[in-house]
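Entry for guanosine-5'-monophosphate complex. Fields follow.
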Amino acid sequence: MNNRGFPLIISAPSGAGKTSICYEVLRKVEEAEYSVSITTRARRSNERDGVDYHFVTPEQFEEMIGRGELAEWAEVHDNLYGTLKAKLSGAVERGKVVVLDIDGQGAKSLKRSYPDSVLIFIFPPSPSALQERLSNRGTNNEISIRKRLKGAPQEIENVELYDYVIVNEEFEDSVEKIVHIIEAEKCALERMRPFIEKYSEELAQKNEDKEHSQ
Ligand code: 5GP
């Protein structure tokens, strides 16, 4: 069987409910693994270093770029964010569905280097729902909310890149949809090639053995 996994990229305008959806998908899908990004952003009080992000200084970030350690990186809302190449490739090779919570720029460059990536874009039900969620979050100040709302139209422009679009009306429904997408993607013809090849080889061998025994 094909033991190779694939990157599952999930993007959304900030405040669409993406982070909680990702956590629940990770809880439900055994072979799913979260790609912990590195960032220069300040840690929020509810975040853990090494779990939600690897928090680094701008100097450390630059050094990692210089050493070619990042599969992609981007500047989002004045902070730098990036994906560790070795971790991602290693997990995909081990058969993991690697969940990446990254923005459109990151999605675009990862799709180039990992063409079998699956890209999902999550919409909040409406722009006013987005504003409400950002204000209720309690971890953003007014300036940061304004910045995030301003960035949303640009994030939405990138939607053409994506394979699937989910409107996050009901949390559980959105999670289920992603779980189903993962199941369907595992059956995609290209991912099943190793099985088909092995099947054909065994079939050919069987026919050969039969011919010899006649
Ligand atoms: P937040 O600061 O709210 O955690 O994330 C802000 C934005 O950065 C989100 O859109 C998130 O998807 C994006 N982001 C997080 N990690 C990465 C990453 O490694 N690469 C890229 N390109 N974007 C990221």
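NOTE: The chain has one domain: 6-213.
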